[in-house]
Amino acid sequence: MSNIREDTAALITAIESIVSEIVARMTDRAASSQRLAFMSQNSPSPATIGTTTGNSDENTVASVTPQPSLALQRKSGQAAWDIVSQATKGPVRIIVEVKPATTPGYATLGTAHENMPAILSDNLAVEDAVITAHFGSPASSIESSKSLVHTDVLPYFGITATLPEIESLASDDRVVSIDL
């Protein structure tokens, strides 16, 4: 019985740590949202990236900087630039937050009638629906190839994805946030 209590306490501590990190990242995103809006409005158009500087004395080429989509910027904040930068070099490990289930089981979360098995099942169903839409079905078949990891209690999953897959996730209304 004491092992169960110790395991439960360790699990709760780990979840609290993850939630604290997520809250910190979301706070950071909110603080930088104005800067991102300014950057996206004033960034060069794709037609001007990689063109010459126009100076006849210096016929140099401007550096090519990949630009995240507006959808990815909204869902990743400042991390969108890091995600795109890393994803241009190859697949990237990301953490995806999905909208929690709106089922009766999930409605019991935090109440005296909390139904944890139903909550876990609901979260897994929501995560699997997003994963299937963007990576194929069934989700269990991609666990090893994409290093898929589900969280049990929270509506998050970790996966290794390419830039087109990340951009596709960013355009999905069920996805709340994408982070490294």
Write the layout of secondary structure elements.
Blueprint: H1 2-42, H2 70-76, H3 79-87, E1 92-98, H4 104-107, H5 116-135, E2 149-150, E3 156-161, H6 163-170, E4 175-179
Antiparallel strand pairs: 1-3, 1-4, 2-3
Q: What labels describe this entry?
A:
180 residues; alpha+beta; four-stranded antiparallel β-sheet; 49% helix; globular
* C-alpha termini separation: 37 Å
Number of domains: 1
Tally of separate helices:
6
Report the structural category: alpha+beta
The share of residues in extended strands comes to 5-15%
Q: Could you name the ranges where pLDDT drops below 50 across 5 or more consecutive residues?
A: 34-53
For the report, how would you describe the main beta sheet? 4 strands, antiparallel
Provide structural commentary.
The protein is α+β, with helices and mostly antiparallel strands and 180 residues long. It has one domain (2-179). The protein contains six helices and four strands, in the order H-H-H-E-H-H-E-E-H-E. It has helices spanning 2-42, 70-76, 79-87, 104-107, 116-135, 163-170, and strands at residues 92-98, 149-150, 156-161, 175-179. A four-stranded antiparallel beta sheet has the order 2-3-1-4. The chain is globular, with a radius of gyration of 20 Å. The relative contact order is 0.15.
